[in-house]
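Handout, section B. The chain below has 88 residues.
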Amino acid sequence: VIESKAGDHRGGHFHKQNQEAFFVVQGAFRLSVSMNEEQETHKFQKGDMFSIPAYVKHSFDFAEDTILVSMYSGGVELADGSMDIYTQ
């Protein structure tokens, strides 16, 4: 469960081994996604659900206080103790 306040910015990373899915419990935000040279922006609000494939960089800009449920296909903490979170 991720809680963010209006005006917060989060993310700016991608996962190599995980697909990530989100369900918006409360609030609203803008999601920016990019891969290679392509970039898209989407708006989500309470009740929406979406997924982000591996290797897609994602960041969130929260318009309202928001609660998200985040689900990973395999988990970001890897067996060797490293994290499946990359910024470049």
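Note. The beta strands are 2-4, 9-13, 20-26, 28-35, 38-45, 49-52, 57-62, 66-72. Compare this with the example in section A.
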